Automatic annotation (TrEMBL):
This is Chloride channel protein. Pfam families: CBS, Voltage_CLC. Residues 712-773 form the CBS domain. The keyword Membrane applies. It comes from Elaeis guineensis var. tenera (Oil palm). Its main location: membrane. Belongs to the chloride channel (TC 2.A.49) family. The gene is LOC105051678. The keyword Transmembrane helix applies. InterPro entries: CBS_dom (IPR000644), CBS_dom_sf (IPR046342), Cl-channel/antiporter (IPR051280), Cl-channel_core (IPR014743), Cl_channel_pln (IPR002251), ClC (IPR001807).
């Protein structure tokens, strides 16, 4: 774990008598001193907040990532020795990996669509054929039975192989890109379950999408390629040694997340903007260019495969092109009265979105109690929701009345043997059931039906109201089961439904087509739940190929986001917080302005000398889970005690394993180290491959020998003075992507370091635990 191992460590430290008194700050102002009174009375204690979090549906320990470049003597020597050929190779590899991520994500996106359309299509055709023979009960058994088998299979592989694959995965990817790591977030097993679990879950008729899981899938593909494969599954590539650091992996995973959105929505520009607006915490122009290249590759791959499928070689998949829901044929002309309707839609979207997020939070907390009981309960919950969904999808269309087919229709009505707008269900020839046309279809086809233009009278008002209510609540209860599930599709379905309702009600004062109202309703609900504006706007325009709607979509998104922000956080921010992931926002909390860096430093602090006894290092590594240790030079290596830098736990383990010890307390220098090690020996390995303390084999006689830490010590760590505002320290920590921030004393004559700030020291639970009288909002 990141800096602290838990209560055992604390007890061990207390047993050693290592409780360190807190340094008072010596304030002149009595009022200010009074405000800090609890601090002065408090002993420095171990911070154990935010050490575990929920990843998918699994509770696991978390660590921070090292985005900082470790500038030690070894790194400098290696950097100086690199030739132009190696630098060129590194740049070529960056672009090659971006290309491979785009290709792989595009292939997975196509496979997902192909599999879902064929599996769900077979199930729906089987149900339809039985309905045509008036075998209604047999049709229900076939429909619910197929759904049950698919749902149970999805839940079983998720619960037993990779619980981290449950849910959309966007909160986990967002947390990873913020600097939070957990063992299984991007593991190969998570990738496997994410792909097949998503196909099975969507095919099972659940009210969920494959779009969120595609973002996680893209990130997993990028991680697998970037870390040089997987040693556990015997897939390794040694030539990727240049990317064995968190900084380069972060950039690749950002490209992967963007590629996932591009593959899911066939929206390459929307993918780049999604990564920029929602996923990434750090961004720069070079990354923008590479991300854009990756999503362009995805678009080309999808275009090629969809053209291939138009000839009918892909079974039931092949209808539609790169544009999912084409609205470009609809004539878009709007006037001032239409803005009133946009205002109404925006406000409704904001209210419904805020309510959706509130209810989802409550449901996820309830589900977490069930999921904690083990895999069988996860599968049982999934089966229960599957039965509920099947009953609604098959039962509710019986409430709808049969509608005669429109006379001037070019399409087949009722639709038999394929997906379409007009489902026969129980109706006589020449009639269709409009509610069945929405429920007994794939989610993509249901959205296509709602978005279709020049269909003002195709769906009754009662049909749209029943469908909206069912989708709204089924979407809530489905997200949180142990199946890879996205929120985009349920939100678009519900939004498009009430968009059509509003369009029908306010039709007399507006000239817009009801299909366009469905699009604006979907935009308003997306803005109300996800609180994204730019990326959602571009994704919707790329989905529908209707650029003329840009001003209206922008307006409705801005209104719905503004309204919803007054109620609660966006859905992904809310889930990140609920899962216990110590996510650092770009801004500091208001109460941090009342504190200084020295107020929240936790201890006890363990430091090493520049040339340290092996026994002391082994003892410290055994007793603590710290990942960073200050190195302090003392006489005879310096005139007075001074902070030399920071040494990482992983580097210490490599050095101890190499056993380059000396009997005398002398500096050996970087030359001696390079005879035994290369710079890549200290590079960060992939997930789960790192060296552990248990791997060491230090003999008793070696414990009294010495080890020179200078060559592997980061001699330029970021430091702040203890009196710096905690708010400024938090912003600095977040913007630089740090794991450790050294706090140094303001006055001379004291030890050269006061403590180390980590991500966990900025967590509200820790700070408000130290200062319970603080108002978290002021």
């Amino acid at each position: 774990m990141d800096l602290r191992e838990g209560t055992n460590d604390i007890e061990s430290m207390e047993g050693l008598g290592m409780d360190v008194e807190r340094n008072g700050s010596g304030f002149e102002d009595e009022k200010e001193a009074g405000m800090r009174q609890p601090l002065l009375l408090r002993k420095r204690t171990m911070n154990t907040t935010s050490q575990i979090a929920i990843v998918g549906a699994n509770v696991c320990p978390i660590e921070s990532l090292d985005y900082e470049i470790v500038e030690n003597d070894l790194f400098k020597q290696d950097w100086r020795s690199r030739k132009k050929v190696q630098i060129f190779q590194y740049i070529v590899l960056k672009w090659t990996l971006a290309l491979l991520i785009g290709l792989a994500t595009g292939l997975v996106g196509f496979f997902n669509n192909l599999a879902v359309e064929n599996i769900a299509g077979f199930k729906l055709l089987l149900t339809s054929d039985l309905m045509l023979k008036d075998r209604f009960f047999a049709a229900f058994l076939a429909y619910s039975g197929c759904n049950l088998v698919l749902a149970a299979a999805a839940a079983a592989i998720c619960a037993y192989i990779a619980p981290a694959a449950a849910g959309s995965g966007i909160p986990e990817v967002k947390a990873y890109l913020n600097g939070i790591d957990a063992h299984s977030i991007l593991a190969p097993s998570t990738l496997f379950v994410k792909i097949f679990g998503s196909v099975l879950g969507v095919s099972a008729g659940f009210v969920l999408g494959k779009e969120g899981p595609m973002v996680h899938t893209g990130a997993c593909i990028a991680n697998l390629l970037g870390q040089g494969g997987s040693r556990k599954y015997h897939l390794t590539w040694t030539w990727l040694r240049y990317f064995k650091n968190d900084r380069d992996r972060r950039d690749l995973i950002t490209c992967g997340a963007a590629a996932g959105v591009a593959a899911a929505f066939r929206a390459p520009v929307g993918g780049v903007l999604f990564a920029l607006e929602e996923a990434a915490s750090w961004w720069r122009s070079a990354l923008l260019w590479r991300t854009f290249f990756t999503t362009a590759v995805v678009a080309v791959v999808l275009r090629a495969f969809i053209e291939y499928c138009r000839s009918g070689k892909c079974g039931l998949f092949g209808e539609g092109g790169l544009i999912m829901f084409d609205l470009s044929s609809t004539i878009t002309a709007y006037s001032t009265p239409d803005l009133v309707v946009i205002l109404v839609l925006g406000v409704i979207g904001g209210v419904f979105g805020g309510l959706y997020n509130y209810l989802l939070d409550r449901i996820l907390r309830t589900y977490s109690i069930i999921n904690e009981k083990g895999a069988p309960f996860k599968i049982l919950l999934t089966i229960t929701i599957s039965l509920l969904t099947s009953c609604c999808s098959y039962g509710l269309p019986w409430l709808a009345r049969c509608t005669p087919c429109p006379a001037d229709l070019q399409d087949q009505c009722p639709t038999i043997g394929r997906s379409g707008n007009f489902k026969n269900f129980q109706c006589p020839p020449g009639h269709y059931n409009d509610l069945a046309s929405l429920f007994l279809n794939t989610n993509d086809d249901a959205i296509r039906n709602l978005f279709s233009g020049n269909t003002d009278n195709e769906f009754h008002m009662s049909t749209l109201f029943i469908f909206f209510t069912a989708i709204y609540f089924l979407g809530l209860v489905t997200y949180g089961v142990a199946v890879p599930s996205g929120l985009f599709i349920p939100v678009i379905l519900a939004g498009a439904s009430y968009g059509r309702i509003i369009g029908t009600l306010l039709g007399p004062i507006s000239d817009l087509d009801t299909g366009l109202f469905a699009l604006l309703g979907a935009a308003s609900f997306l803005g109300g739940t996800m609180r994204m504006t730019v990326s959602v706007c571009v994704i919707l325009l790329e989905l529908t190929n209707d650029l003329l709607m840009l001003p209206l979509v922008m307006l409705v998104l801005l209104i719905s986001k503004t309204v919803a922000d007054s109620f609660n956080l966006g859905v992904y921010d809310q889930i990140v917080k609920m899962k216990g992931l110590p996510y650092m926002e770009a801004h500091a909390e208001p109460y941090m302005r009342h504190l200084v860096a020295g107020d929240v430093v936790s201890g006890p602090l363990i430091t090493f000398a520049g040339v340290e006894k092996v026994g002391n290092i082994v003892h410290a590594l055994r007793l603590t889970g710290h990942n960073g240790f200050p190195v302090i030079d003392e006489p005879p290596f310096s005139d007075a005690p001074e902070l030399c830098g920071l040494v990482l736990r992983s580097h210490l383990l490599v050095l101890l394993k190499g056993k380059r010890f000396t009997k005398e307390r002398v500096r050996t220098g970087v030359g001696e180290l390079l005879q035994r090690f290369g710079a890549f020996d200290f590079a960060k390995p992939g997930s789960g491959k790192g060296m552990k303390f248990e791997d060491l084999d230090i003999q008793e006689e070696e414990m009294d020998m010495y080890l020179d830490l200078h060559p592997i010590t980061n001699t330029s760590p970021y430091t702040v003075v203890e009196t710096m505002s905690l708010a400024k320290a938090a912003v600095l920590f977040r913007q630089l992507g740090l794991r450790h921030l050294c706090v140094v004393p303001k006055t001379p004559g004291r030890p050269p370091i006061v403590g180390i700030l980590t991500r966990h020291d900025f967590v509200p639970e820790h700070i408000l635990g130290l200062f319970p009288h603080f108002n978290p909002h002021k």
